[in-house]
Amino acid sequence: MLSGSKNSFKLKQDIHEPQLCIPEVHEMNKKARQLSLKCLSGEYIHEEAIHVRKSVTCRDEVVYINGTLYCTNLRTSFIPHQAPEIENYQCQILNTNNDVALPCIERIVAVSSVAKPKVLTAHSTLKFIPEGLLIYCKDFRIMRFHFNDSGLEPQALRITMAIVQAHQDFGRMAHYENAALQDVQNGQVRGKMQKEFPTIFFNSSLDWESELRRTGASNWRVSPINERFDMSTSLPKYLTVPSRLLDTELKRTFAHFSEGRIPRLCWHHPCGSDLLRVAGFQPDTDPEKEDVRTVEVMMLANHSQCVIVDTMDNMPNLLDLQLSYLKLRALCVNDIYLTVSDEKWFSTLESTRWLDYVRSCLKKASEVSSLLVDRCRSVVLQESDDRDLNCLVASLVQVMLDPHSRTLSGFQSLVQKEWVAAGHPFQQRINLLKEADKEESPVFLLFLDCMWQLLQQFPTAFEFTEAYLIALHDSTYVPFFCTFLFNNQWEQGRRNQHKSLSQTYTPVNGWRDFITEQHLLKGMYPTAIQEESTYPPSIWEWSLHYSHQQQAQFKNPVYVSCSNHAVLNNYTILHTTDKLDPTPSANVSVYLLSKGLLTLQTQFLPWKNSSALRKGTRRAQSSESLVEPERLTSSKSGRTHLRSFKQQLLPLLMGPWIHLWHRCYLRCSSYNQVGICAPTVSSLAEELKLLQEKMSHEFTTRNHTQTGCSSRKQRVPSCHPTEKSGRTCQK
Question: Polar residues bias: where (predicted)?
């Protein structure tokens, strides 16, 4: 062991540019397979270290697992020497417990007994041989590795600096989209989970039309006006618009909204209300009178009442949300060598304001859902760019009101519709490549936290579990799937065209696939499976990165479909018909929900040509009255008219009801570090089922034994089945 400064030295690694073209991929993958590492397409090994111990803390006990640590151009992988007993291990490409994608790494710390822990960067210099390695992950994990104690271990230094350099180079690599789960052996695995839980991707007009039929929105149609993205690159190909409007009328309205994001339908309520979303107006434009009339028709959506909801009101902006998230992660994934008192810890948690932001989102969604069920009207969610908070609120509202969105298939389709197809900028908000630090903000992760809060308050209303939400949370930092790689469908389509990095262009031969030519030269012929799997798979193909044992934790065994159970959470809502009472002389009424107040608008469009729908304003009831703080029950006298909504979820928002998602954020603590397969309701239900089966089998066996004994004595036994354990049969 080193001691003092006599044996210390400095070692600085050489910085080199990453190689984009790897001609010997086949040989490297062959070597990796021999080393028990299953390489992805385009993946190769930088460095390896054998006889590495990974420490896992479960409760108050530290367990060490022996294995080999690998550093590749895509991830850091630990392969235990003792193979896991998983039936479908060959089908699982990524090991979620032992693999860390390079973009998921937050910081790397080298540990030694002769020096303080040192945070490493690409230009770091080390004065000691690391005895241990700590990898802090963005998904709140901490990977702890310990090297051999037999003196100066060169492999410890090599693997440490290789991980640091690979992490630095990954942000500059442009081929990460092609380095996905595309192996030929994965062809039969892909789509297996999709058959069990089919997901609508909303890439075709048929997908949008099926959604209209499911919700019964008969006054709406699917328009292909943006099929070539010439109207708006951030909108999906197909838009849901009122049936009475022609595409020629719609074309003139795109220029009057930010990024061309016109009003369009999100969801249709069974009572007739419609939920829409729209970007901010462009007040500098000068639309014609007919264009303004078209916009008014789109906003009213065939209703006499319209409520415009400012989703940015009383909600965190992107910067505040990012700062809060960074504080939360620093608190939950703190230095393992530091101890903080409980009082200081909870005080710091409150100062992050993360739980306040979760409460604000749930409150906003509850207000909107109450507006939709209260009366047949149009509710329009408006945000400046319509790509962040509108996605969050629109999704939460549908989860609260639509039981289909609480199923596995429905929830995954909801994410595809309101986030992926709607153009949420995942590249900037998640910022895997560290190219947009100023635009990074965990809007989607905030949505998952809100979903967990609903799951805690309504445990039987969801088909999926907390383990599923954690898996989805962690998958946002894995760049090997196409779901969260792009900002919109337009970018996704461009990357999927004939301009991939494996192709080269010449004026004579045009586009030529370099990797395919290399395979042909080596006698390797592309198969049909290769051609089908040339594009990164969807995140919903869980079999590629989660085992059957882990996927079994995704489904909630206590889930009860809405048609089979009573009112969820015993929640009923007071039916008041005078909240938005239009003047008889007016045909339509437009209100603005902002700062907790409903205000009647005289002119809700910023242009001079817009018609004045109503004159005068009044102070409406506070928004808190839209969601009653107490659960109302029907009066015995029957004078109070109450309606019960079997399909609506309204969460309690007071302080004690909003909790910290401890299993996600505190997973590095000794109590919660039990992995994705932690004991849950699913495992307890499975164990209970096995016990019931054993008891039933035991009961049947004893019953047959007693029947046989009785028949031999030519008499009928008088023992009751419940008393069988106390009776004996004699010859």
Answer: 702-711
Q: Tell me the C-alpha to C-alpha distance, in Å, between residue 529 and each of 185, 348, 508, 533, 534.
A: 9, 52, 29, 6, 9
Rounded to an integer, what distance in angstroms lies between the CA atom of residue 73 and that of residue 37?
13
Query: What is the C-alpha separation between 90 and 95, in angstroms, rounded?
Result: 11
Q: What are phi and psi of 139, to 5 degrees?
A: -90, 20
Please state, in angstroms and rounded to a whole number, the distance separating the CA atoms of residues 108 and 122: 10
Domain ranges of the chain: 11-186, 693-726
* pLDDT (mean) for 603-608: 74
Residue 567: CB atoms within 10 Å: 14
Taking CB atoms within 8 Å and a gap of at least 24, the contacts of 524-530 are 524/26, 527/184, 529/184, 529/187, 529/188, 530/182, 530/184, 530/187
| pLDDT, tens digit, 9 for 90 and up, residues 412-442 | 999 999 999 999 999 999 998 788 789 999 9
Distance CA 417, CA 211 (A): 10
Nearest to 451 by CA among 549, 556, 551, 332: 556
Q: What is the pTM of this model?
A: 0.80
Q: Would you give the DSSP letter of residue 240?
A: E
Tokens 């703190």, residue? Answer: 334
Radius of gyration of the chain (CA): 30
Per-residue pLDDT tens digits for 531-578: 444 567 899 999 888 888 889 999 999 998 875 333 334 333 333 333
CATH code of the domain made up of 11-186: 2.30.29.30
Pairing assessment for the beta strands 378-383 and 274-279 based on DSSP bridges: parallel
Give percent above pLDDT 90 in the chain.
Answer: 46
CA–CA separation, 392 and 316 (whole Å) = 12
Look at the block and give the residue holding tokens 């390695």.
133
Which residue in this structure is represented by tokens 């400064």?
5
Give the DSSP letter of residue 204.
Answer: S
Cα(167)–Cα(103) distance, integer angstroms: 7
Alpha helices in 197-317 (DSSP H): 205-215, 247-251, 289-300
Contact 221, 281 (CB under 8 A): no
